[in-house]
Amino acid sequence: MTTAKIAVLVSGGGTNLQALIDAQNNNIIKHGKIELVISNNSEAYALTRARENSIDTAIVKRGTEMDIEDQIIKLLDEYEIDLIVLAGFMCILTEKFTSRYPERIINVHPSLIPSFCGKGFYGLKVHEAALAYGVKVTGATVHFVNEVPDGGRIIMQKAVAVGAHDTPEMLQRRVMRQAEWKILPVACEKVCRDIVSKKKNELVK
Ligand code: GAR
């Protein structure tokens, strides 16, 4: 095995997915390949980005026979996925799901964890909270996902300055551009490289 198979879970615009696709095309991600993009929102622009790059897509829906997590597990099994990347995926995954994939799920969060994270902190809400608190520095974090929302081991962080006249939207964009789009691909490559070398070692044993 020379590359890890990646599934990216998305709900919205997919700028972080785009950063991963660009990193793959620019050889920043060398030990992984995005095989599948899964969304809980059929309108997500992230799906268009995937299709434009010839990446398979799948939509999971509530209110069907199987719950969302079981639908995702089935897809991950079908594609023999090694690493799950949450890139703006706006559903909290339960322990039933996370315990199946220890250190095989990573998430990008738009603050410096442990600030402004956990239940209820997602998307623009994170930046609204940072501005309301009056912090002068915020940033982004990539971390492993476990049963505690935003509570898994931190892989990488990057700080970003808060401007005196920032709106939540301005801050969100700066955090994405200066931090998220940079650290997510690098963290993803690091984890893929570790997965590949672990699998090679297992084969030698
Ligand atoms: C990103 O800022 C991501 O960090 C955040 O949602 C946005 C998705 O944007 N995720 C969370 O808040 C998860 N707790 P994108 O769809 O353009 O990548």
Describe the structure.
This protein has helices spanning 15-25, 45-52, 68-78, 95-98, 124-133, 168-204, and strands at 4-10, 32-39, 56-59, 83-86, 105-109, 137-144, 154-161. By secondary structure, the protein is α/β, with parallel strands linked by helices. The protein has a 7-stranded mixed beta sheet, sandwiched between helices. Helix 1 crosses helix 6 and helix 5 (124-133) crosses helix 6. The longest helix has 37 residues, at 168-204. The two termini are 15 Å apart. The relative contact order is 0.18. It binds glycinamide ribonucleotide.
Q: Which whole number gives the mean pLDDT?
A: 97
- The N- to C-terminal Cα distance equals 15 Å
**What integer value in Å does the Rg equal?**
17 Å
Number of DSSP strands?
7
Helix coverage percent: 25-40%
Which stretches are low in confidence, meaning pLDDT under 50 for 5 or more residues running?
Answer: none
* Major pleated sheet: 7 strands, mixed
The best one-word shape is: globular
Hetero groups: glycinamide ribonucleotide
Give the DSSP E fraction (strand runs of 2 or more residues).
15-25%
Order of H and E elements = EHEHEHEHEHEEH
**Number of helical stretches of at least 4 residues:** 6
Strand and helix map with partners:
Elements: E1 4-10, H1 15-25, E2 32-39, H2 45-52, E3 56-59, H3 68-78, E4 83-86, H4 95-98, E5 105-109, H5 124-133, E6 137-144, E7 154-161, H6 168-204
Parallel strand pairs: 1-2, 1-4, 2-3, 4-5
Antiparallel strand pairs: 5-6, 6-7
Helix pairs in contact: 1-6, 5-6
